[in-house]
């Protein structure tokens, strides 16, 4: 009787291991994408102290790299890496238009995603996602003023896109993201007016529209 029980247990364990092995091979857990991305800032705005007015931030085009890990066939996490340079102006102030130079933004972004196929052919694979980003400002040029300081800031992200499968391993990607970002800015304009320090709260909220290629492994 003991031999029969042990045999049944051994067969059960072998069956479980086999099923787990089969399930682990049903999908590739990692993928990497390279995209060209247009960074568009249609919702930019600012609350500028003392001199009033608003902000104008330039659009730009950047390369982007991302890594995705699939916990299941449908649920994944994606780390998105890219950096962008933007020219900045204060507009409609009491002093007119003021060149605030430029700043580089590095907003590493982590999103949780849901992926699904639209048919059994498994060619078109849409996804949606949401997450967080932490934006670092660096290599700031001050333009017409003495200095500009941007506070690094935590924000949120929303995402949607489509993977178009070429093979099991390679695909084309179309992606759109929205980052929700506010930062506190301090403008040192003492070179223009003695003792003039201007605080501002700037909302950027850029859209990122990308197209690229990816590989699963």
Automatic annotation (TrEMBL):
<dbReference type="InterPro" id="IPR011250">
    <property type="entry name" value="OMP/PagP_B-barrel"/>
</dbReference>
<protein>
    <submittedName>
        <fullName>OmpW family protein</fullName>
    </submittedName>
</protein>
<feature type="signal peptide">
    <location>
        <begin position="1"/>
        <end position="21"/>
    </location>
</feature>
<dbReference type="Pfam" id="PF03922">
    <property type="entry name" value="OmpW"/>
</dbReference>
<keyword id="KW-0732">Signal</keyword>
<dbReference type="InterPro" id="IPR005618">
    <property type="entry name" value="OMPW"/>
</dbReference>
């Amino acid at each position: 009787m003991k031999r029969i029980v042990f045999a049944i247990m051994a067969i059960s364990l072998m069956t479980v291991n086999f099923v787990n092995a089969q399930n682990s091979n049903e999908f590739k857990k990692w993928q990497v994408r390279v995209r060209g991305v247009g960074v568009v800032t249609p919702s930019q705005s600012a609350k500028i102290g003392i001199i009033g007015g608003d902000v104008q931030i330039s659009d730009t085009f950047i390369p982007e790299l991302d890594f995705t890990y699939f916990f299941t066939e449908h649920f994944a996490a994606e780390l998105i890496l890219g950096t962008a340079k933007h020219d900045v102006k204060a507009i409609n102030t009491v002093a007119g238009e003021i060149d605030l130079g430029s700043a580089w933004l590095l907003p590493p972004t982590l999103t949780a995603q849901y992926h699904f196929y639209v048919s059994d052919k498994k060619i078109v694979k849409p996804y949606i996602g949401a997450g967080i980003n932490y934006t670092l400002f660096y290599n700031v040029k001050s333009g017409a003023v003495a200095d500009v300081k941007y506070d690094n800031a935590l924000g949120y992200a929303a995402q949607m896109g489509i993977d178009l499968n070429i093979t099991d391993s390679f695909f084309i990607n179309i992606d759109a993201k929205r980052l929700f970002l506010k930062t506190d800015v301090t403008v040192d304009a003492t070179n223009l007016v003695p003792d003039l320090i201007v605080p501002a709260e700037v909302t950027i909220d850029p859209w990122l529209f990308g197209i690229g290629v990816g590989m699963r492994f």
